[in-house]
Design a protein that fits this description.
It contains 13 helices and nine strands. It is an alpha/beta fold and about 300 residues long. It has a domain at about 210-300. Helix 1 (about 10-20) links the parallel strand 1 and strand 2. The protein is globular and about 50 Å long.
Length: about 300
């Protein structure tokens, strides 16, 4: 559980993990130099339950590095990132691990998702299309994952550590969870449990709400990006091609099919227009608010961003 200033909901997130029917786990919390009461809350839980290991950073190292630090701090066969403001149903871990233990060709198991409010009430159900993710074809899985990049819930699933170790993990760039999810899909199948055992909390203090613009959000991933203009959509495009090259077990035909899928991605929900907009923001920074409104409009029309 990487966290920064999470005192608002972290107690509920921790409690939902400690109440799992599957009990053989370690909860590693890494506090990214929070300035609220996060440390006090976490330490109280750690005193009560020996399964909790609390780490803290002297300074804020950015979300990407903090996400990766909790991964490197563990050694378990399976790994799961947990957000400080999400919750799990009590059977989540058991059902995910049962699936992974029974099927070696599955690299990730997650569940359907309910979005909850600040008070914990369900506000909407966000269904995940499971069929393409269980396909025997790596290119079919890859194509499905890169075309649906609005809600990247699967990176919070239970993942085989050996599969994650083969990836760059969370990169220090905007939306780096998208290529990570796609690369895991190239390695093997995803299974999504039918019941919504994962509860994603939507609230105004989420990073995506507090910093909705791509060029503003760079500093959340890496503090060194503060004040710098970046090219988020160009970076995603290049990383999709890179992750195809990093998976050696793909046949030549599968690699070709994946590369074609990336080219088709350009035409999905005006991604080509977003690529054009990235460099324009350097000369016309005032366009960013217009792009924010455009992306919200596209999301309402079924956008995948």
């Amino acid at each position: 559980m990487p966290v920064y200033n999470g005192a608002n909901f972290i107690d509920k997130a921790i409690e939902s993990i400690l109440c799992q029917s599957y009990t053989d786990f370690e909860l590693i919390i890494c506090d990214n130099a929070s300035i609220d009461e996060t440390a006090e809350v976490c330490l109280k839980f750690a005193e009560r339950d020996p399964r909790i290991r609390y780490l803290s950073n002297v300074e804020n190292i950015g979300a990407a590095a903090n996400f990766n630090r909790v991964f490197h701090a563990g050694k378990s066969k399976y790994f799961k990132w947990a957000a400080h403001d999400d919750e799990l149903g009590p059977e989540y871990l058991k059902k995910c691990i049962d699936i992974l233990e029974e099927n070696n060709d599955i690299v990730l198991c997650h569940s359907q998702v309910n979005v909850i409010s600040e008070t914990g009430s369900v506000v909407r159900h966000t269904p995940i299309d499971t069929c393409p993710l269980e396909s025997e074809s790596a290119s079919e899985r890859f194509n499905a994952l890169i075309r649906t990049d609005l809600d990247i819930y699967e990176v919070f699933g239970v993942i085989r550590r050996k599969s994650l170790e083969r990836t760059p993990l969370i990169g220090s760039y905007i939306a780096s969870d998208r290529p990570l999810r796609a690369e895991l899909g190239l390695q093997g199948k995803f299974v999504i449990l039918p019941d919504p055992l994962f509860l994603c909390r939507d609230h105004p203090e989420r990073s995506i709400c507090a910093m909705p613009a791509h060029h503003m959000r760079g500093q959340w991933f890496d503090p060194k990006l503060k004040g710098r203009f970046v090219f988020p959509h160009w970076r995603i495009l290049s990383e999709y091609f890179k992750c195809i090259a990093r998976v050696p077990e793909l046949t030549a035909q599968e690699k070709f099919d994946c590369q074609v899928a990336v080219l088709k991605w350009l035409g999905v929900n005006q991604n080509w227009a977003r690529l054009l907009a990235d460099p324009l923001l350097i000369f016309f920074p005032g366009m960013e608010n217009t792009l924010i409104r455009l992306e919200k409009y596209l999301a309402g029309k079924g956008s995948t961003e």
